[in-house]
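Section 5.1 Outputs to date
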Amino acid sequence: MNSNPPFPPPTTASSSDIHDRTLTGADRSALRRRLRQQRQQLSKVQQRHAASKLARLVWCSSLFRRSRHIGFYLANDGELDLTPLLQHAWAMRKTCYLPVISADRRLRFTPYYPGDPLAPNIFGIPEPSGAGLRLVDARLLDLLLLPLVGFDIQGNRLGMGGGFYDRSLAGLRHRHHWRKPRLLGIAHALQRVDALDPQWWDIPLDGIATDQQLHLI
């Protein structure tokens, strides 16, 4: 049941060409490139304002407030920055986690505290580093915030194409009653498209949060 009104119609020109038709692999790649370019073109001031607005929307939600173990990400490639929300979560004494790419190309999650060391992973994205990391599966989290490249309001998502989150969350497809973690996609409002055809391996979202609105599905 939606707790918020639907998102307003997409404002980006790139969304109109995928309405009511199935995307081929080439279509998805082209759409991914366009949406990434659009968010990369946002200025630093626009990114800061968007991050602040997103944080206010999410931390007021019951989904966030009742979650004690929350998975975050460190923004890259123009993604919406979660730093203001992360700082608020620390202040609320929540246990915050960041993803770490494991040898099997799945994501594990480790608790992350202010000042913890970071090092670039194989993609050059900072992730927790050092000896003695305590790695846990996503199923032990209450809430996981996922970066999106594109999304529609049905909860379908377009990611970067590496499949890391899909592989790491594959077990959610087989659960019917108990479902952890709840999945909240994070994106700029301009990354919304009319419709995305889900792939068989896709894990549907429980909601999407942008700099303009929180929409629970």
